[in-house]
Amino acid sequence: MAGPARISAAGLSLLCCAVLLLPTPGAAAYVLDDRAGLGPEFDGIGGLSGGGATSRLLVNYQEPYRSQILDYLFKPNFGASLHILKVEIGGDAQTTDGTEPSHMHYEDDANYFRGYEWWLMKEAKKRNPNIKLIDLE
């Protein structure tokens, strides 16, 4: 059975801890104030399709499921409503998790529909013409 001295010591310890956690008078507080300017600009919420296969299987989904997923990702005011899409531009090499085909093997060999990233960008623009597209080479 605990004696009064043991209970008093425990109570005193708790009181000391509580006092230490109290803010000290005159301590500087972190104030969020942006009266001097507009502050950082919020560009929006974005998604990444890169690294060799993060969205590879989406092309092969059956309709209407593929369109529904794309709508949830890119349509404004609906689902995720992404503002930015960053895609990896393939180069026929094993760069990270997979290989993505290059859009140009030779100087006069431009084909922007070899891989699935160009398809994904086109689908994103179809649903949201104002989406920002960024490439990762």
Order of helices and strands: HEHEHE
Q: How much helix is in the residues?
A: 25-40%
CATH topology of the domain at 49-135: TIM Barrel
Based on helices, strands and strand pairing, what is the structural class?
alpha/beta
Strand content: 5-15%
Q: Which CATH C-level class of the domain at 49-135 is it?
A: Alpha Beta
Total number of beta strands = 3
Average pLDDT taken over every residue? 78
Radius of gyration: 28 Å
Query: What's the shape?
Result: elongated
Major β-sheet strand ordering: 1-2-3
Low-confidence stretches: none
Distance between the termini: 71 Å
Superfamily at the CATH H level of the domain at 49-135? Aldolase class I
* CATH architecture field of the domain at 49-135: Alpha-Beta Barrel
Description:
With 137 residues, the chain is of the alpha/beta class. It has a domain at 49-135: Alpha-Beta Barrel (TIM Barrel). The chain contains 3 helices and 3 strands. Strands 1-2-3 form a 3-stranded parallel β-sheet, covered by helices on one side. Helix 2 packs across helix 3. The longest helix has 18 residues, at 4-21. This is Galactosylceramidase 2 isoform 2.
What attributes characterize this protein structure?
137 residues; alpha/beta; TIM Barrel; three-stranded parallel β-sheet; 3 helices; 28% helix
Task: Give the secondary structure arrangement, pairings included.
Elements: H1 4-21, E1 46-49, H2 65-74, E2 84-88, H3 117-127, E3 132-136
Parallel strand pairs: 1-2, 2-3
Helix pairs in contact: 2-3
GO molecular function, one term: galactosylceramidase activity
Organism: Potamotrygon motoro (Ocellate river stingray)
Keywords: Signal
